[in-house]
Amino acid sequence: MAHGSLSYRSVPALTGPLRVAVYLPPCALANRTRRYPTIYLLHGAATDETQWPAIGLAVTADRLIVQHEIASVIVVMPRSGLDPGDSSVVDVVVPWADANLPTLAAKADRAIGGISLGGGAAMRIVAAHPTLFSRLGGHSPVPSSQAILNQLASWGGVVWLDVGNADGLLSSTEEMARTLQADHGREELHVWPGRHDRAYWGAHVADYLRFYAGSWTSR
Question: Partners of 6 in the beta sheet?
Fold first, then answer.
């Protein structure tokens, strides 16, 4: 089976270098003129840019791409963006990726999501910057404020939420889903067996990638 590449980069920023994990699809080295849609994935609290690779991001992406279940995609996983005052994903990471990776730099070709605190951060980022991303995922996300949910309701993109049935964030995730379903109409909720841990998220990496790449499969 063909393999993509997983590398760790240092991105210049005014506050100091940001660490970023980057997955490039198997065809990226062979075809240097082609450009790809990009998924930005944020990690949870008390971890870093290695979380998504540790739960199988690269090997799962390789398999889905080779089996033609998803389009070839770039995945960017920064060690940043979780704090409410941290705008580095929008100000630093996305511009860096568009300048240094073979990305398709348009809203329709970008998705963002995250695990736990990163899921809540992704929701906040999209609410504040609705022209940057077309798909949003929250995987066991920390609760978002009503103001953020109101902004997402008028955003126009597609929202995915999921949570384990034994996760302490189950009720808040279900409540966010009900709010978005009532106001937004382009939201889906998945509740699967599991807790708030890597075993749960790792079991659903393929589901996440199918969602993020859902509108790109024909490319």
Answer: 23
